[in-house]
Amino acid sequence: xxxxxxxxxxxxLLVVLGxxxxxxxxxxxxxxxxxxxxxxxxxxxxxxxxxxxxxxKRMAREARQQNRIL
Length: 70
What we know:
The protein has 70 residues and is an all-alpha fold. Helices cover 57% and strands 0% of the residues. The radius of gyration is 20 Å and the shape is elongated. This is Protein of uncharacterized function (DUF539).
């Protein structure tokens, strides 16, 4: 029983190590293969015509951060 646990744990460690090496080499984040929400024909998570006030504030804050010079 312990050997199965250790073998499984070792395999998981190898997978995590492989993913981290892939990130370090390519500097590309891990992403799914299905395309996410855009494959469903939606531009955003909520499909409401007008975003709520909290969403508007968040979008304004993100726009300000993108316009800043680093």
